[in-house]
Every structure is written in structure tokens, then in C-alpha cells.
Amino acid sequence: MDTYDSLLAAITPTSGETREVRDPATDELIGTAPVQDVADLESAIDRAEAAQKSWAALGDAERSAYLHKAADAIKAAAEPLAELLSREQGKPLNGPNARFEVGGCEVWTRTAADTPLPVEVVIDDESGYAEMHYRPIGVVGAISPWNWPMMISIWQIAPSLRMGNTVVIKPAETTTLSVLALVTVMNQVLPEGVLNIVTGPGRTVGDALTRSPKIGKIMFTGSTPVGKRIIEASAGNVTRLTLELGGNDAGIVLPDADPAAIAEDLFWGGFINTGQTCAALKRLYVHDSIYDDVVKHLVEFAKNVPMGVGLDENNVLGPLQNRAQFDVVDGLVKAAKESGATVALGGDPDYDAPGNFYPTTIVTDIDPHNPLVVEEQFGPALPIIRYSDLDEAVALANELEVGLGSSVWSSDRSKALAVASRLQAGTTWINSHGGLHPMVPFGGAKQSGYGREFGVMGLKAVAEPHVISG
């Protein structure tokens, strides 16, 4: 599987129900994806359950060694994986996109393998002695999204395997091939039954996965409404959950910020992956004294960032992954225009052109309660809200029911930290937005979910704490 053609051949179904997969940039046929059902899911769960005890019995060091072998396999297949990801998801090869994502899969797999998690001595004095151990939960059910299909799958798979669990993963219906290819590459080196994939509709296969009494843990990245349905579906089995749900991240630019210096980082905070990122900057509050300058510099940078077909090495922005998301973005921008907001850049898609391309769009002088501000657009349209009172800006940033990420932009770190401490979010970045590190815990506040991924906390989240006392 060292070429695109050999990788595609390895995952092309030879029997059963299939569906066509088309490039969201060109509408060209890429290939066919399997469409499986609940019976296929149950078989996969049974395989994972049968393999789990022997996988756990290998011990921590040997499981970590297997993860490094899986990372080596990902590295060896990196270019065909990136090409397939670009064709199916739409993101370009270059920039913080397809090659970046595949590279992240390797890095996160190695980090999960190498992060120490020794036995913790909780108490050791005249009152007694107690140790905290972390045991496998059993079978982990993973449900991954379409925006970062490979990397988020790895965030679910790698720590789960490290801790002695086996995995059944269901990818998003619109990025099936990408995750199927990743799993196929990893399964070249992993023991049989340890990592399993089932494709199919969320309303049947996904629902059955969350309801299965054989699943000990569900990891889900996706929308808040679907997350709520998973909570309900899994309640009867008291299934452990990690939910990374929707966000509508706010950024606050303080009056002492340098508009020219922050423009590039503001852009990538909002438009990475063409805005299709849960923890992207989705609403920006800028102090009145520098509002016009921030808009000017951001527009100047944004208008020169190339958007187009992902396989063109020059492009770093791509299409929306699916037409439904295009329609969401288009509808919100249209409503903003009709409300009297100003479109400083973009907002004029070519509806007759091939692909789901929505131009980079910056909307200014917009009411803070306009739908484009308070509803997650998940695309390349950034509203910039003018403020004069910092307390009001903080209140607006905090008033929504979601709280995944946030950011503060300032030339004075102490001032930025003071504002950051007032924001309700799982992460607040200073003078950047959305950057993740495999050792830094990540997750949401409020209705952006619960549980944390990455690092030591991420390993503990896919394990059962076991106190041995005495």
C-alpha cells in the first residue's frame, strides 16, 4: 500500500452494499465505500471482545511497541493516505491540511505509546497505604467526524489501545474511505481483532454501537444534539463517555493588540481546514479603537490565501466537505447581509461551479446576536463584532451554551491572562487559537461536552481506576 492506487484497491469492497464516493472539490468519482449494517457491527464487537483479554495480557510495554509499529506503518503510507484524504474530505495536501493531518496521526500514536502512566501511590503514612492502578475498560466504541477524520480517529484509537482496550470505530458516512484506509494500514501490524471498523449510517449502526451492552466506553466527536442522543442511548448500560461536542469559539482582541502582527494568526485561527474545525475561531470581538485596522489587515491577508482543488500543491484552502454544510454557511451569510451587516470579503459563491467551494468571507459591523454570530457556521465565514466595553465583550463571549475553546489577543500577557481567567471554555489560547499539543488535555465546557483527551488525562479517560488499599 505504498501508492495511492494500491491503497485504494486494498479498501475497495468486492461484495455487499456500496455507495459512490465523490471528490467535494470536483464531484469526480473517487471509488466506492462499503455500507454495512447492525449485523456487521455485532460481528465486529464480538471480534473485539474476543481479542481484548489477550491484548491486555501483553502488558504495557508490548502494547506500546505495537503502537510504534502502527505509527511506522502510517509514516510509510503517508503520501497515499494524504492523497486519499484530500480527495475525499477536500482539504488540500499542503498547509495545515492533509499531509499535516497524516503526520499528526503518526505523532499522536507515538505520544500515546510513550506517555508514562505509573502506579500512583495515593497515601503512604501511619494512616495506611493505597495505590491507584488503571485497568482496561474492555471494548471502546469510537465515532469519528468528517472534518479531521484520520487524526480524530487516532485520538480515539491510540490511547484506547495503549491502555489495553480493543476498539470498534464507526467513521462519518462522508469520510468512510479515509478512516478505512487508516485502519487498514494500522492492521498490517496490529494483532487480529484489536482494531475493527464498521461503516454505515449513524441512525442504525451508530445508534446500535452506543446501545450495545458489550461496549464499555464511547468516544464521540461531533455535534451537541448527537452527543445528547448518545448520552440517552448509552444510559441503560452506564457506558463511560468522552464527548467532544460542538463549539462556537470566541476571540477577544484587546485595545493594545497590534493589528498587523496578529492578522496571520487570527486568519488561521478562524479558517484552518476552511473553517471546518470544532475549536476554530468562529466569532471575533474587537475593541472599537483598533476595529478598522484589525479588519483591514485581516482582509489583506485573507484575500491572498489560495483556495481550490486540494491536489493542486499551491492551494491551502479547499471546499466544504459536503453540500449540506455549504448550505448552512451560505444561509447564515445571506441572513447577515439581509440584516445590514457588511461583507468585507467574500460572501459571493459561484453556485454553478463544480465543488462545494464557499469563498473566504469576513463579515463586519454585525449585531452580536445575529445568527452568524450565535450559531456555529463551521465554514469559512468569520463575523467580527465591535465592542467598547470589555465586560460586555466577556459577557457576550460567555453567553452561549457551548464552550470548547476561546482566545485573547493582546500585547500585554498579564492583561490577556486576566481576561482569559474570565472565559468559560475548555481551553483559552493567548495570541493564537486552536493549536493542540498531544500532551495538553483537550475538551469542552458546558454543552461542548465532557471528558478530556491527550496526555495523561487522555490515557486515564480510557481506563478503569482501581484502588488497591492496605
Write the layout of secondary structure elements.
Blueprint: H1 4-11, E1 18-22, E2 29-34, H2 38-57, H3 60-76, H4 78-89, H5 98-114, E3 120-125, E4 128-136, E5 139-143, H6 149-162, E6 166-170, H7 176-186, E7 195-197, H8 202-211, E8 217-221, H9 224-234, E9 240-244, E10 249-253, H10 259-271, E11 281-287, H11 291-302, H12 323-339, E12 342-345, E13 361-364, H13 371-374, E14 381-387, H14 390-398, E15 402-403, E16 405-409, H15 413-420, E17 427-430, E18 445-446, E19 449-450, H16 455-461, E20 463-469
Parallel strand pairs: 5-6, 5-8, 6-7, 8-9, 10-11, 10-16, 11-14, 13-14, 16-17
Antiparallel strand pairs: 1-2, 3-4, 4-20, 9-19, 12-13, 15-18
EC number: 1.2.1.39
Protein name: Phenylacetaldehyde dehydrogenase
GO molecular function, one term: phenylacetaldehyde dehydrogenase (NAD+) activity
- Topology-level CATH name of the largest domain: Aldehyde Dehydrogenase, Chain A, domain 1
- Give the class from helix and strand content and strand pairing: alpha/beta
**Low-pLDDT windows of residues:** none
Sheet with most strands: 7 strands, mixed
Mean pLDDT: 97
Strand content: 15-25%
* CATH class (first level) name of the largest domain: Alpha Beta
Largest sheet strand order? 12-13-14-11-10-16-17
What does this structure look like?
One of its GO terms (molecular function) is phenylacetaldehyde dehydrogenase (NAD+) activity. It comes from Leucobacter soli. InterPro entries: Ald_DH_CS_CYS, Ald_DH_CS_GLU, Aldehyde_DH_dom, LUC3-like. The chain starts with a helix and ends with a strand. It folds into 2 domains: 264 residues, 3-Layer(aba) Sandwich (Aldehyde Dehydrogenase, Chain A, domain 1), CATH 3.40.605; 182 residues, Aldehyde Dehydrogenase, Chain A, domain 2 (3-Layer(aba) Sandwich). Strand 6, helix 7 and strand 7 form a beta-alpha-beta unit. The chain has 470 residues and is an alpha/beta fold. The longest helix has 20 residues. The radius of gyration is 23 Å and the shape is globular. Helix 1 packs across helix 4, helix 4 packs across helix 5 and helix 10 crosses helix 11. The strands form 5 sheets. It has a 7-stranded mixed β-sheet with strand order 12-13-14-11-10-16-17, sandwiched between helices. A 6-stranded mixed β-sheet has the order 7-6-5-8-9-19, sandwiched between helices. It contains 16 helices and 20 strands.
